[in-house]
Protein 1
Amino acid sequence: MTTTTDIANDLVALCKQGDFATPGEKYWADNVRSIEGMGDAPVSEGKEAARGKGEWWTSNHEIHSTGVEGPYVNGDQFIVRFTMDVTFKPTGQRMQMDETALYTLKDGKIVEERFFAAA
Amino acid sequence: MTTTTDIANDLVALCKQGDFATPGEKYWADNVRSIEGMGDAPVSEGKEAARGKGEWWTSNHEIHSTGVEGPYVNGDQFIVRFTMDVTFKPTGQRMQMDETALYTLKDGKIVEERFFAAA
């Protein structure tokens, strides 16, 4: 049986390899809700919207380095911390990002991902 | 107005000073649910139960050092990471703990605290 810990560890292992696209393709539910920690359009619904958000992010940022810590598990949920040193290509601004993501699983798929911004 | 970020920052500041008791007394709701990441009795209900759990923990562990990272905020929720180097007094076993806590606020009080264990 695939447990929360199995999925969490697989997601973290992929991200540590710099692969931030495969975890979503493998584990997003078709109706996944993706909730940002800040910004104008914090909630997106569905796998297509989540994929589009990831593609926009990837094409607009140059990644200098990334850090992935976790996972931390409780029941059908887990938390991962992401730190990233990136340049936002449209402005050339370099930023140090620090956020955590809370994933909620149902039937082995991610039905919600909620991002928390460092305060 | 007191925001999630205000409460989160106050809780983190107190914990960074080594004061893990005051945040609960200040911010727990009377009916707070406290959910452990592991163990036999993962859910406790009410401020008295949460306080008792904290007092048991404090009296049974010698704390060598602690680390507090965060907070990370989204809406009425925030996440804090705790690392601790402790000795469990009954057995003398020294342990490095690493966990995150997800706090949910309602009307300026913590109605749920959910702990996630490093997997």
Protein 2
Amino acid sequence: MDAVGPSPEKITSLQNPRVKRLVKLRERRERDEAGLFLVEGYREVRRALEKQVRLQELYYAPDWFLGGNEPALLDQARQAGAQLFELSRDAFAKCSYRDRPDGLLAVAPQWRKQLADLALGPRPFLLVVESIEKPGNLGTILRSADAAGVDGVIVCDAVTDLFNPNVVRSSTGVLFSVPVVVADSAAVHAFLRERRIRIVATTPDTPDLYTGADLRGPLAIVMGSEQYGLSAFWLRESDQRVRIPMAGQADSLNVAMATIITLFEAVRQRSGDPPSR
Amino acid sequence: MDAVGPSPEKITSLQNPRVKRLVKLRERRERDEAGLFLVEGYREVRRALEKQVRLQELYYAPDWFLGGNEPALLDQARQAGAQLFELSRDAFAKCSYRDRPDGLLAVAPQWRKQLADLALGPRPFLLVVESIEKPGNLGTILRSADAAGVDGVIVCDAVTDLFNPNVVRSSTGVLFSVPVVVADSAAVHAFLRERRIRIVATTPDTPDLYTGADLRGPLAIVMGSEQYGLSAFWLRESDQRVRIPMAGQADSLNVAMATIITLFEAVRQRSGDPPSR
């Protein structure tokens, strides 16, 4: 026993109920039922603590540690209220969903933000993504949105679970800081209209270039899904449809790449530059 | 026997020398010694054939096929001169480097382009990347370069093998069409200077924004490596150093994302828009 919490219980059995639960939490259904998700990896756990994500449990296996900073991180997590459990090398390998585990895996409560929770200034800047399918793309999109300084990301008609381990990972912790709301398209559309936020949708099927759209005022950029592009709903309900000019192969730009291009054109214009002629 | 080639020899043994060789070709050293590389997957094999990559051998396993178009692709490959080999489910699984094999894996000769092979018009547009480490990033960068319509990509002081299976895959076949040259930095610099191509390097350590640089004329955009950024050589030998403005976490933009942002600002300017004031 020490001052900040009970001494860790060491788990070596692959049949241990905690090990089994960690494996189950890879499944969306299990996560949703428990209202929990997994945060794996040194960088991710550190980011979660920085962003005040309340880690309930932190599993660690010194056999897998890559550096020397892990004990300090464990202390920090314990002081923030996490319960610590030491795992044997094999037990950790069973729980890890990574190719190369680094010996740290936490469990944290999920959260749900509503549209009304978004803090919007006088000139809102939002990214709306529709039915993104690949967790890696959603994570990359969150990183782009963070770098572009959006007020929030709205995921419409979500296919991918926001708390999928691969979203957590590919977002490099941005999931813990950028406001993300999951909602259905009709509610999002009503929310944007009410606040007089201009809706600019990207699609290959328009002559208008994204650089010619005025992206300076209250703005929501809407991106479609990988496979189907934008739905008829958003194509119809947008104020402007724009395309990104493409040389080369038709599929060279995926949705994550198209998103970052559009977001940074908005950043350019919003810093004072006009749209193109 | 049919008109276009010998009937396939079916391979079932995991000890078959061809199976063993395919596994070995995942290693760079083996690829370099043999002067060969692997093209795995329906989409990749189709793209390779479209782009006149001379497939020497095509291994296929009907047990893994996902659709109904594979026989036509096999015919096409045979007519283009590839030798066909049928593999059992298990033998193919051993050769595949994918999580979900789709039953097609080809072997093709590597190629080497020189700087002098680049076809440059009066207003060259080049991308130079330095020591990129992750094959996935290099593949994504090739896709961006293709979409932006560059005349070529120059990889300086290559760390990642251009013919790494993950570059082939993540480039979605762009590797087969975009001219890529591997060369050392000094030679690349001399090449650019000789042709009076403006060198614009991206780095966080400058007050100048990328949108303020004039990217309209003969241009080489230079990007550093994931871990170390741009080398002192390129920082010193560039005509202008520019940065991308970043909100949020310091590491939200990786090198592939920074590349696509910079390339598409160049595309914008080169279509007639001025740089920012």
Protein 3
Amino acid sequence: MTMQPVMAVDELRSFVDEVFPQAEIHNWLVNDLGPGTISVTMRVSESALRPGGTISGPTMFFLADVTAYLVILGHIGKVELAVTTSLNINFLSKPPLGDLMAEGRLIKLGKRLAVCEIHIHSATDADTLVAQATATYSIPPR
Amino acid sequence: MTMQPVMAVDELRSFVDEVFPQAEIHNWLVNDLGPGTISVTMRVSESALRPGGTISGPTMFFLADVTAYLVILGHIGKVELAVTTSLNINFLSKPPLGDLMAEGRLIKLGKRLAVCEIHIHSATDADTLVAQATATYSIPPR
Amino acid sequence: MTMQPVMAVDELRSFVDEVFPQAEIHNWLVNDLGPGTISVTMRVSESALRPGGTISGPTMFFLADVTAYLVILGHIGKVELAVTTSLNINFLSKPPLGDLMAEGRLIKLGKRLAVCEIHIHSATDADTLVAQATATYSIPPR
Amino acid sequence: MTMQPVMAVDELRSFVDEVFPQAEIHNWLVNDLGPGTISVTMRVSESALRPGGTISGPTMFFLADVTAYLVILGHIGKVELAVTTSLNINFLSKPPLGDLMAEGRLIKLGKRLAVCEIHIHSATDADTLVAQATATYSIPPR
């Protein structure tokens, strides 16, 4: 399974700015795009915080989903219409307040379906997983 | 498996207003609480919309998660600290723009874990499922 | 979402006997096939039992998977090659020894993907769920 | 997250022989047990094959489940009664006929819950994932 990105990181970033004009609200950034892999950082704002001071589930869901979307996009090109068909997320530990990082890995890139595994950890502690997710995307016929 | 709510709908609503002061932002409302079941409506605001005009995945994730939380709360009482341990969501059809309804059903209510099945549909079309989810919550020892 | 079976129960049973000659080993039987729904009984043999006297996880996985397969087949016709792409199963309570029943419900029947929700209970206690599953099948192009 | 096994591989093997006298039927073998990780090989017999010549879903489910069980056991000791609460499996590619290998990784080892990620590939092709699973186990109070 030799997967190769079809875009450079900068190209992916520019494309994202075009199609997600609200991306700055979420404040996420592609760090790196490699063969079958991606690394994304998300700045966590006050609004993502829940009572008790933890980062909300939907925020982590969003990060997992966008990470899967971006690694797929980076490997199949500018297919805006790939859509999530399912996402399974496990919340593993309470994250410290602060930015999150997600490492995505394509575990299948078929003609119709792509599957991505995502590991989320705090930007300041790469060893403790905060959440793990598996996302399936449907790829439109070309 | 005879599950009985331990709160009235009004009591659940008041409790929610207390612990989720930001609930109005999300604009959701408990319609009904029955034995093992709940019905929740969510007003979908512009900010939940994605390019292409559909309702975002995180919005539906949020609705599924809060529905599970509320039906558990309604059956075990005011245990603020029950936390999601995992959530599996399937996106089934593109929702029309407009409010969403979620029907939650407790399929397990154990001492340590509760599992809830959630069906999400458009408020104007109860027959077409937009998303289906299964959420597992960890219940703190009492 | 008005789904209609394209086969009668007897037709589905005959088809299954053809393609799963080993079906008798598993000893399962389609009870009923309705619009978007199916009911399947599985006789649980000694070999499915685990130390401690419970029914094994793989046995319940098998029942969930075959139930999804059969309800899809019953609604799209004799498409032998539909394949499971993912299955999420929650084990909810320890089943009593004895036969199991599965109730399957199609929650999506698209051109490329079908999603089925499965509830498994003991044949002698329909009120206590033993397991719940969600299965996704890929449907080959026709 | 520094996880350390509490058993040697040989000790784990002996324990398994005791509690799973039928293990030889399934023909699986622990290759290695490391900090938070395990590697398991399963010999695939004729009976696991499906029409079309592929390895059956329940066989892969079994391998994923037993891999999670063994890595947990190897890290918490001889706790026979840890039980699977949920398992999510994605089937990624059709496996070639032949033995399978599973690589398990503990992504959470809490007091009450353990979560394990499992990658399954053919014993003769480590680069192509055949299936990926996430299993959650409930750990009994000690």
Protein 4
Amino acid sequence: MAAMTVRQIAPATGKLGVLTPGMGAVASTFIAGVIAAREGISAPIGSVSQMAHIRLGTKEENRNPLIKEFVPLADLGDIVFGGWDPISPNAMEAAKTAGVLEGKDLDSISAEMEGIVPMEAVFDQRWVSRLEGVRVKDIPNKWDQAEALIADMARFKEENGCDRLVIVWCGSTEAYQEPSAVHDTVASFEQGLRDNDDNISPSQIYCYAALQSDVPYANGAPNLTTDLPCMIELSKTNGVPIAGKDFKTGQTLMKTLLAPGFKARMLGVRGWFSTNILGNRDGEVLDDPENFKSKEVSKLGVLDGILQPEVYPDLYGNIDHVVRINYYPPRGDNKEGWDNIDIFGWLGYPMQIKVDFLCRDSILAAPIVLDLALFMDLAHRAGESGVQEWLSFYLKAPQAAGDVPAEADLFIQQTKLKNTLREWMGEQPVTHSEAG
Amino acid sequence: MAAMTVRQIAPATGKLGVLTPGMGAVASTFIAGVIAAREGISAPIGSVSQMAHIRLGTKEENRNPLIKEFVPLADLGDIVFGGWDPISPNAMEAAKTAGVLEGKDLDSISAEMEGIVPMEAVFDQRWVSRLEGVRVKDIPNKWDQAEALIADMARFKEENGCDRLVIVWCGSTEAYQEPSAVHDTVASFEQGLRDNDDNISPSQIYCYAALQSDVPYANGAPNLTTDLPCMIELSKTNGVPIAGKDFKTGQTLMKTLLAPGFKARMLGVRGWFSTNILGNRDGEVLDDPENFKSKEVSKLGVLDGILQPEVYPDLYGNIDHVVRINYYPPRGDNKEGWDNIDIFGWLGYPMQIKVDFLCRDSILAAPIVLDLALFMDLAHRAGESGVQEWLSFYLKAPQAAGDVPAEADLFIQQTKLKNTLREWMGEQPVTHSEAG
Amino acid sequence: MAAMTVRQIAPATGKLGVLTPGMGAVASTFIAGVIAAREGISAPIGSVSQMAHIRLGTKEENRNPLIKEFVPLADLGDIVFGGWDPISPNAMEAAKTAGVLEGKDLDSISAEMEGIVPMEAVFDQRWVSRLEGVRVKDIPNKWDQAEALIADMARFKEENGCDRLVIVWCGSTEAYQEPSAVHDTVASFEQGLRDNDDNISPSQIYCYAALQSDVPYANGAPNLTTDLPCMIELSKTNGVPIAGKDFKTGQTLMKTLLAPGFKARMLGVRGWFSTNILGNRDGEVLDDPENFKSKEVSKLGVLDGILQPEVYPDLYGNIDHVVRINYYPPRGDNKEGWDNIDIFGWLGYPMQIKVDFLCRDSILAAPIVLDLALFMDLAHRAGESGVQEWLSFYLKAPQAAGDVPAEADLFIQQTKLKNTLREWMGEQPVTHSEAG
Amino acid sequence: MAAMTVRQIAPATGKLGVLTPGMGAVASTFIAGVIAAREGISAPIGSVSQMAHIRLGTKEENRNPLIKEFVPLADLGDIVFGGWDPISPNAMEAAKTAGVLEGKDLDSISAEMEGIVPMEAVFDQRWVSRLEGVRVKDIPNKWDQAEALIADMARFKEENGCDRLVIVWCGSTEAYQEPSAVHDTVASFEQGLRDNDDNISPSQIYCYAALQSDVPYANGAPNLTTDLPCMIELSKTNGVPIAGKDFKTGQTLMKTLLAPGFKARMLGVRGWFSTNILGNRDGEVLDDPENFKSKEVSKLGVLDGILQPEVYPDLYGNIDHVVRINYYPPRGDNKEGWDNIDIFGWLGYPMQIKVDFLCRDSILAAPIVLDLALFMDLAHRAGESGVQEWLSFYLKAPQAAGDVPAEADLFIQQTKLKNTLREWMGEQPVTHSEAG
């Protein structure tokens, strides 16, 4: 095959500040797990960057290093934690409130967790009506809020001696709203900030402030933040990577495992009914139809992206796809998803599949936060800007870098992630064909 | 990238005889569906060779033909059906007994189905104690049985004006038995046939006869037939493709969808409990512990093949994997599989997944029979011999062509299948990386 | 024990007309099954009146007749079918549209089914917005509508030579509405009819017309019809039995099996999440939040009725009970219910139960229609009037005859039904104690 | 109704020793929960004797006391714990090994738990091959073993100042064996003890010793102990109550909830497939086919007892009933049961029910131990001897007191239990009929 050129990538020296807007269940679980991994208490299970091997060359060559030994990632020991939150006083309190982790897993790291105190948040209840913010910046104008966030980042970087920062949105889902004219260009957006435009949500202000501070921004919620034309423009102008959107956990993770399999085997799908029960803050927020709307759009698209009804109208052109989320306090943070899938095969005969997933959302999301932080930082050092489509592996509603829609199939996404790393490091992509 | 060379493939002219040892539920469903597809009654759902598209070049090129229009496969209209069975008088009776297809789906094709009369079988109740053969060759010596099968094939080819033949084993699972010295070489096997060696099972005689008749042989059961050194040797000497083993349907299909997903996301697996209930002839046969043993070995291996416990001991080194099959008459041919999967993630927290698959085994197996027949014939015309590892996509316990174990991950298998076809036709493999 | 007095019951001579307002899935399935039972094609499975035995005296006496041989019920051969429907032209078309029964089960009885033509309905889309009536009485005033129904019944009785009539409501669920002043007394209701009062729904007009025609009325939907003070008054004044409400099928049937068991064993309940998917006319109607409201009220009450949170606040005082109904066309008439139940036991330890019920609503409802018709007719001949609480066995939200709430526990309801019949016939109630 | 006579019952004064042969998961959970209840830490959830109310007279009378305030039961504060075990050094160690209760629930009661030291067991690995006893009486002859147990009880009673003793078997399931001639009479059994007869198992020696010591004996395992003619004879001769057999928990509990419901509604049952996965000592023991045999016999009978196929051959005469138990370590003590039930209704149409019960066996069994202990002691004081059929509510395979088989229907069993108590106390039985 053709020779490959190695990408120039700046080394991962110095400290990396990982900032999370939102320091609730997901962020505190992420922080606790990284601390535990640093102290050798538990392996960072679920983190591809830390745990996965990557095959290089042919199988016979038997080269199969850990990803973290193959590409120059920041070391877990070099991570400094920070963020913003309208409610939690520190990461330990956030973890206790969330109830994801048991007391015995928090006791030994409580001092360090208590020391991680979020900065006051940019928050507006109009976008998350079920929450009440108490640790909120008392700044009325949105331009001024952006300036304050930029100052927060500069101060955090200096006080903690960080070489670089990266942001991963771990906050709640905002109410759904179509993009408007204010989101068209950087110029219109900046005018909107000054005008305190109603269409600008808090997550957009965080994203703008990050990109203006040369800080990569990954979007873990279904908010449209990183999809907005102004943000894509700014990320390219400023040379900062962005990625979105919505951590791929729970039921949608399961969908992106199963749907590619049905398609691989050319089995038709007639219906897919998904219902969730969950009892945490996320469940409360999504019980509000406006916030659920954002989530629903993000969740419904995933099947079409994988199954390509336009190519396979007989198999996938007539799917009743229903998604429901129910606030059900007895479940606590342990979300449960029940799927009923109606498929059909040879001669049109129907079959049914029921999947009951007794899942833990924050446990599944935490390693995604880590991987997105490390890979976004890597991309930044590798000179990338704009949408990092190769990270769609981690995201429910992946953004495309170009005009062709992003892949939704988890296995193609995985291949894309690994082959991108191989290419950057000057290795041949793996094709699994006879010759490779 | 480097230029690719197109493989020389003989054209698919003339008729193709598809012979199935075993004309029960699977074979009769396969036949009925192909007839229905020929007559435009139903699309051949589940058949990758007939329904799937294959992307060529980059996404932007927008080249996406059907596989059957990309590679020179035999046309459905050119297939002639035949086989051997110890019980069924014809394909229509087999279909009625099996109860897979409803009366309304059989009525319009009953005449053609009745005309498909299996030849008398080589059968030995020692290997399938729960069945009683009535349409069995009255030939005591195994060498003579092989000769009779060779004669059957020659006669079938001539009487039906076939250009080529292919065999897909659709018979029952034979009792488990380790290979013995008689299976070491072609010479020792032929001596064993003459000596009526107890270690030689009927399926082995079919396979030997096929390879001596230049007929490719695919193995749809967990029998060790095509794994035997003598058969691999013979397939290479005679230049005939073989493939095995065990149609990938039902619960194992589901496993090969889910397990790669857990591994992709580096989620640990602590246990996997699988139970099946089924009420058909297959269920009766597998209720016998000796026959179940063959199946169990085939089913248990699949997880290790995918999860690589030797590479990931912390995640996959301690899995309690239990597989049970239960004869339960109320279910009829509609097998049901229930899986409980215990996984763990970040900080070792456990999660559970329950999958209830109300499945139809023969409906899932029938398109595999078609695809294996067409692709084995293609491989033959393309000059292949020995194990066709690129067809492991269809098989529960895939055989490797070389020393490295075959891939068990359905999605890598799919990539392998498609990239093999691309290479044969002189197209670049698809890598899904930025560059491809 | 004390001697019992036998009740005077008029004999079941002559024909019994069973009229159903609503001739859709449930009514057509009921009719088809009774015809099949009459012709010996199938036993009336699910019908307690036809299939169940009743133990008399002590076990040692070994007296265990069929209920239908113990009490003087109308014979299946004496039933004449009729009804009203805004859509179906006849029972055969209704059955075909419903898709509950397969063609092969309808073919042999199609002539008889086609001959059962519903009368034009009293219908108002305001109460069932998802349906469009086409076979509707063109009578604007509600008093006149009631008169027309009374005339319908008189004519039906005469034309068919019926000795007696009984009505079982098999129509759709009407939009939820609290009772208003017009429902207080018979006088106010009659004035409302004349005034075309908006608060009077079609089902109320049917019920009024029935009671004025000396025809017992059973209410198979969650409509508040038979609960209204005016109807209870009229049923007593006129000496006609009424019963309500809502056929106990599907998920609620399951609830009334399971909840009494938890209570019997003093296991606590922390939450009960119930979701339904169904694709028939009922599903479409209930997809409208106004109609679902009626259903939800009927479904939610059942747990409290059984578990008595006022008596057991520690066990049942804090239950999150959620009920959802989803229109999901792939399921057709085969409703599926999935329940998650969170219980707790010794030392407060939690346990979970998941129940997936692949159910057929009309198949479960049809024998209830039969039993209610026959038992209401029996009660009428036995001189009963007012609410027939002993029939609460069949009903989701049973009405009480007096001030004490009706029992919701299926097993107490069963005891009540059987002991009521025993008492009417002069037999001792069964107590299952040492002495009895 | 007729006047009732009050039974003479001796008062529950003084201490009650509750002895459990077997001090493993069930017994230690029972002990921990009673201690916690005494100290007000947790209510004794699941205990009918402690938590349930009982209605007296008509509903209108509104008399509804707690059972424990209605009948003279021993007070929880008066219970003294003891037992025998071949492995556990004390109740605390047993609880830790079992892993049923979390550390936080054991910490505050650990001192008391550690003080409960089982006596050395009569144990024979021939009957429980998967266990190795270490704290075992070194007495070879069975007669001498019985004498030693009798001495143990006398000493325990005296040392602890007990007024009365009661035994509840909480040990493992013994290997299945049909009764033999040695079990025919007390005389033959005593001769067998002297002869060290192979057919006499340890549980039989415990039972014999109890009955000779005037100590009631309840059998929580499927061992045939209390069914043996010699034991029934001895219990009557000596005036001591016995009860058996097999605590009704988990899947069988679920069966006795559901099956009565199907029968109440006259729904047919075509098949019932039950599988269990569990990872505790019980699971290990039952993985041995000989021990499973005892369990299987006990579990399979329950459906016939409820459904009466002899009375309802069309509905229940052809049931495929399969029960499987699987040792699956990831589940630990948290047994999980999955049931598939195939039912049929009107016109024979099939429906399916799947029940997944994430259960905790010891949590369900512990309150049964308490109730059996208290009610057996009550029965003893009430002058009862022989089989206590009214306690069949708690038992999987209930023994009948006379020739008529015992009721298996949980709801009839509940009625029987409560009406028995009502009768003993001179109250009318409740019939739920119009009159009562």
